[in-house]
Amino acid sequence: MHSGDITIENISKIEGSAGLKVTIQDGQVTDLKFIIQDYRRFYTQVVKSKPIAGVPAFLSRICGTCSVSHLFASLEAIEKSQDIKISEQTRILRRLAYDALMIRDHALHLYFFMLPDVLGIDSILDIPDDPNDFGHTLLHDSFDIKKLGTDISNTIIGAAIHAPFPTIGGFVKNPDPSKFAEFIDRLEKIRPQVIRGIKLFYDWKAELFRNSDYLCLRNNDHFDFLEGEVINSDGKRVAEEDFYKFLKAVVIPYSQAEGYVFSDTHEDYLVGSLARLNLNLDLLHPRTKADISQYLNFFPSNNVYDNNLAQAVEILQAVDDAIDILKNVKINPEEKPVTKPVKAGIGVGVVEAPRGILYHMAEVDDKGMIKDYDVIVPTSQNQINIENDLKKFFQENLDKEEATLKLEAEKIIRTYDPCMSCATNFLKLEIIRK
Amino acid sequence: MSDQSLVENHNAPKKLVVGWFSFTCCEGCLILLTELLNENLDNWKKLIEFRHLKALKTKNQIEGLDVAFVEGAISSPDQEAELLKIRANAKHLVAVGSCACTGRPSATRNDLLNAELNYKVLWYFKQFKYNDKVKKIADLVKVDAQVPGCPMIASEFIKAVESYLKLYKLI
Fold first, then answer.
1. d(CA A431, nearest CA chain B) in Å
2. Which residues of B73-95 are buried (b: 16+ CB within 10 A; e: fewer)?
3. What is the pTM of this model?
4. Cα–Cα dist B167/B4, whole Å
5. N or C: which end of chain B has fewer CB within 10 A?
6. What CATH superfamily classification does A43-433 receive?
7. Among partner residues B35, B56, B112, which is closest to A123 by beta-carbon distance?
8. Architecture of domain B4-167
9. Which residues of B touch A125 (CB under 8 A)?
10. pLDDT tens digits for A343-359?
11. DSSP label at A12?
């Protein structure tokens, strides 16, 4: 029976810096702290009194890996504050760029961060240079998948990280459709590789069950990362504009990020791929559903490890959605961004970042300057859920060796795909008065 | 790369021993590195030992680095101490990306006026021991080379890697 403190100073194979401290006394977990260690940059404070034009590109710098999510959420918030209605071309190109983001970002997490746990090794760097080795095959699958996500991003929005083409009201540069046929061909070619990854995470015997509530966007027409209402497991629906009121921020004094619980029940909840698959399974692309029906029976799932399977499924969803868009979209190369004279207003943008619901709120004054800005990121929302999962895990496994406990705890944390860069930029500051 | 003298007293290692370190930033340069691995990992694994790369491995070491690549700006005394330790353990240190090279955009909080440094911001400063100002890497240690860009310009990073591989006669 383990007793005393267990500390992990630096959790590896995640984005950013976090640690874990667990105190065990008399066979009980008496304290557990998941500590987000990244230093804040106070970007939502910095943008105040700045003109709206440069704000989305600046706030994309909140996070390297989900920069496109921050960019699009910020664009949506500011466009709504200005009553700007984007064109259908802009809407569909953003959706395509977002598919590319999901393909690249999920593949990074699944293959570079999680795959070593599945293979029982420390790192992808330890995978042998042997084409007959299964790990080698999977790693090279990931290169093809990630690269295609990046290449589509480069063409549609100018870059996969801090993309320069999207702007308020549309695109400063429209994409060159001459590459679309090649992309369709490559997307078709990676489908079997993506399905191999889905099978891998379906077959991986890793379990941590805990009843959780789930929260995600739902668009009743199709599986959508950008548009819809926020729904939870009870079927409660919340308009994007009311999302903030739906949550209660909780200051966690040892962590540089806040946590969140439901405002009415004060209970934790989970956002991300698992939430999306649990609540939107019926909306998956017909081709995705048809080709992996044998791997979808786990959903809805309360096994947190199925977040990996859900991400793998979402890669295929994004591939199939992107193929449809690339086959059908007609680009008007002359289209310009929609512009309007600036006005005072408040706008909210809610999107599904790879890790879950991302909220941006922009309040703009009549000179077109930011008066107030707020961001709620997925990892902050998941923080309390992560701690409660870990408490359950430690409580049930105190008979194991410390090294095993540490490794398993890191796996649980990695499974959430947390992002500390995101989690530490914002000031839910009214809470600090408590 | 100007520090040839450091190499002359050094037996060329079998591989270039490299560390990657992230301070206050979006880690976009690191993400771009993971993208560059799509096409370069197979080759780099033959030439480079990634001795410290927390994003990809659990067992990391700081000792005996030929090159330390450092992204991000410095926000706190703890980070300063860590940076000094990296410098002491690395023959060459490369500042990677805009935050490391210039401090910005991570250092934009330095522009906040006193009135904007309200109790809310100051609570974080005190609770987590922030420096008053965010600093670029060269404010604190000698920087041997820079890879600019936000995120880093990929071709410049590859040039930097190749220049050290050449310096150590590995290519």
1. 9
2. bbbbeebbebbeebbebbbbbbb
3. 0.93
4. 7
5. C
6. Cytochrome-c3 Hydrogenase, chain B (1.10.645.10)
7. B56
8. 3-Layer(aba) Sandwich (3.40)
9. 45, 50, 53, 56-57
10. 999 999 999 999 999 99
11. -
